[in-house]
Every structure is written in C-alpha cells, then in structure tokens.
Amino acid sequence: MDAEMQAWWEDYQQKQRQMQEESNAAARNEGLNQARNQGLNQGLNQGRNQARNVLLRLLRKRFGELPADVVARIEAAGGADIERRADRVLDAKSLSDVLETPS
Q: Does residue 61 belong to any structural domain of this protein?
C-alpha cells in the first residue's frame, strides 16, 4: 500500500472510531436522561401518594370513618385538588366542606 493510500485508510479508521464514540456518548446520554426522568416521575408519584395518604388520615381523624366513595374520590384526585382539600381540613365544619369543589 502506498503512503497516500495508507494515510487515507488511517484517516478513515480514525473517523469511524470517532463516529462510534460519539454514537456511544449519545446513547449513554439518552439512557441517563431516561433514567433521570423515570426517577423524577417515580418520586412525584410517591409524593402524591403520600399526600393522599396524609389527607385521608387527617380526614379520618377529624370526621371518623370515611365512606368508600369519598376515599375513591381522594385516591383519584390530582395534586392540586389534594392540596386544596388538605388546606380546608382544619377549618371545615363537615366532611362536605372539605370535599366541595370551588365554583
């Protein structure tokens, strides 16, 4: 192989290695991003579940055993709804005061 061909071949191999390294780095970053997002989502879900459990515990302590439909409503509620209801627990005179939806 002449020198020009040898130089071309080495350059080609170097570019191939560089492209492979870049591809590996991109795949690693994608994997890290997916893992980070999955961890974040799991943490958020755990936080919402804990908030629901605290709200249910507070409601039971304040108003006694809760009807199954109330428990189901709380378990299906979103984060903002849970927070709004939790804010009402201490001032509410009845369970319906906590559960009513704002107009």
A: yes
Tokens of 4: 């020009």
Token duo for residue 36: 């980070």
Give the chain's mean pLDDT: 90
Please give the residue range of the domain that contains residue 29: 8-99
Give the predicted TM-score (pTM) of the model: 0.66
Per the domain annotation, does 1 fall within a domain? no
Say how many domains are in the chain: 1
Question: Strands, E, within the chain: which ranges?
Answer: none
Place of tokens 């459990």: 53
Q: What is the DSSP letter of 77?
A: -
Indicate whether 83 belongs to any domain: yes
pLDDT per residue over 23-45, tens digit each? 888 888 888 889 999 999 999 99
